Amino acid sequence: MFARYFLSAIAAISIAGLFGGCAGAAAPGAPDTDTLTVFAAASLAASFAELSDAFEAQHPTVNVAAHFAGSQTLRTQLEQGASADVFAPADWQQMAPLRDAGLLADTPVYFVANRITVVAPAHSDAVQSLSDLAKADVKIAIAAAEVPAGAYTRRSLELMAADAEFPPGFAAAVLANVVTNETSVRGVAQKVSLGEVDAGFVYETDAAAPQHAGRLRAIAVPLHLTEAAQYPIATLAGAAQPAHAAKFVEFALSDDGLAILRKHGFAPPANIACPCGSMTPDDSTAPTPALRRDG
C-alpha cells in the first residue's frame, strides 16, 4: 500500500513539473521572430510592402517593419537617434549625411531608378500639356525643395527653361503657380487625385499607382527634360538585426526583388557607383545619370 501511494505521489509531482515547465512556452514549431526595421522613401511604399512580404516568406523568423515618409524626414530621424536596420531614400543627397556621421554600416548602392512626370486630375482639362503649367490661375503642387522629388522637379524645370521649346520665363511662371510644397511626393499625388490642384509633379510610379487609377491623368515629360531619380540602399550602423539587414538588401538587389520593383514601375538603376559612397563631404554637385529602361 505504501509503495503504491509513493509511486502515485512521484507521478503527480512529475506531471506537475512537466506542465509547470511548459507554462508560457511557445507552441511546438512556432519560431520566435526578429523585427527588421526598414526606413524607405514614400514612393517605395507599395513596392516595398510586396518586397517585404516576399522576404518574410523566404525568412519565416523575420518580421519586416517598414516605415515610409519623405526621405529627408527619415534621414533627420536617423540623425536624431531613431533606430533602423536599412535605409532606402530617393536620392544620394539623403544618404551622404549619414555616411559623414558614421551611421552607415556599408557602402550604399543604387538599386532602382524612377523619373519625374506631371499629373492632372483625370476629369479636369485645365492642364493638357506642359506649356499649360505656365498659364495664369493654374494651381500646381510640388514637393518641397529638400524632398528628393522636389529637387528632381526643380532640376527638370531648369532643363525646360534652357530648352528652345519653351518661352523665356517658363520655369519662373510655373513656380509662381505653385500653391503647395508637400513634405513627400505622396502628398503631391494626393492633392492632384482629390482635385485640389490642377497639376502636380510626381514620380512615374506614383502616376501609375493603383490607388490613383481613374483619378490621375499623366502628362509625360520628355526624357531630355528630366533626370534619373536614382535610389540608393544601405544597412545602418548599430542595426539591431545586421544579418537580416544585409539579407534584405541582397534580396532587393536580386532578380526576384528587382522583378517586384519592376512590376511597380521602377526602372533598373544605372550601372554606376552611388556618389554617396565615395564623395567628399562638401561635394554636392555629382551629376545624375540618364534613366535606363533596358534590362
Question: What value does the Rg take, in angstroms?
Answer: 25 Å
Biggest beta sheet summary: 5 strands, mixed
Kindly state the number of beta strands: 10
Q: Which class do the helix and strand fractions yield? A: alpha/beta
C-alpha geometry? elongated
Q: Describe the strand arrangement of the main beta sheet, using strand numbers.
A: 2-1-3-10-4
Strand content: 15-25%
Mean pLDDT: 86
Name the CATH class of the largest domain: Alpha Beta
Number of helices: 10
Work out the count of structural domains: 2
Q: Which series of helices and strands comes N to C?
A: HEHEHEHEEEHHEHEHEEHH
CATH names the topology of the largest domain as D-Maltodextrin-Binding Protein, domain 2
Helix content: 25-40%
CATH architecture of the largest domain: 3-Layer(aba) Sandwich
Which consecutive residue ranges, at least 5 long each, have pLDDT under 50?
1-30, 279-295
Determine the N-to-C terminus distance.
84 Å
Output the CATH homologous superfamily of the largest domain: Periplasmic binding protein-like II
Question: What is the structure about, briefly put?
Answer:
This protein has helices spanning 2-22, 45-58, 71-79, 96-100, 148-161, 170-176, 185-193, 204-207, 242-253, 255-263, and strands at 34-41, 62-69, 86-88, 109-114, 116-121, 140-143, 178-182, 199-203, 216-219, 229-235. The protein is of the alpha/beta class and 295 residues long.
